[in-house]
Specification:
Layout: H1 2-31, H2 34-44, H3 53-87, E1 94-100, E2 109-112, E3 125-128, E4 131-139, E5 144-148, E6 155-160, E7 166-171, E8 177-181, E9 193-196, E10 208-216, E11 224-229, E12 238-242, H4 260-263
Antiparallel strand pairs: 1-2, 1-12, 2-5, 3-4, 3-12, 4-5, 6-7, 6-9, 7-8, 8-11, 9-10, 10-11
Length: 264
Amino acid sequence: MFTLRRWWDRYAVKAGLVVLAIGCAWTLRQTDGALVYEAYQLLTRPLQPGLSRAERLENAYVLELQERVVELENQNQKLRELIDYESKTTRPSILAAVIGRSADNWWQQVTLNKGSRDQVKAGDVVTGPGGVIGRVVATSANTSRVLLVSDPTSQIGVKVSRSRSMGVVRGQSDGRIVMEFFDKVPDVKPGDVIVTSSYSRLFPKDIPVGRVESIDLEKGPAPQAIIQLSSPLNILEWATIHPFEPIMDVDAPPARIVDDEDER
């Protein structure tokens, strides 16, 4: 008994600290450190000018709602711009949303949420804010697939609005298009507006396409110009479908008219 008392008097503090440490470790494990976090918050709260946890959560929800409002306002603005643009045209049209776009074919195709049930058919012309973006190449009951003007297989008969110089534009994989002129020395300069021409068999004439960015008159076999599209295809969210009956399967200059003397 005397020995035990001596041991207790000598090691009581150490034993108590060991038991306390083991107890704290067990408690932390069972509560995943919640008690330490709460104790830290309680002790440091008077020193922190910040908000409480509940207030921070409330502010986070408010910030989320504000961001949602900003997004809705942006969408509303885009719709207003599109409606204003379409109100200036006389052709019947169908407003559609872009619901599909592959990262591998970003500049080639988009899918719209209007299809054959909405009287959309292959060959219809599709425009966006700024001008032409492509044409419908396939439809289902509720969707339509649009070949963009930036697709390398797409080609459109166009003209320089200022000088009426004619040519054909073809898509490029980087989102721009290239215009090849019919004339060897075309009247064109940077900044000129490019619109669809009456030579186009797949698009109505006089739809804005873009502006001349640069010119290469030495390019063979015909002079070329890089065209910056008017419609921002990289951020396209809404489009308008215009009923149209293609004249031919490809865009090309009209065939030479053969007169009676040539036939003889």
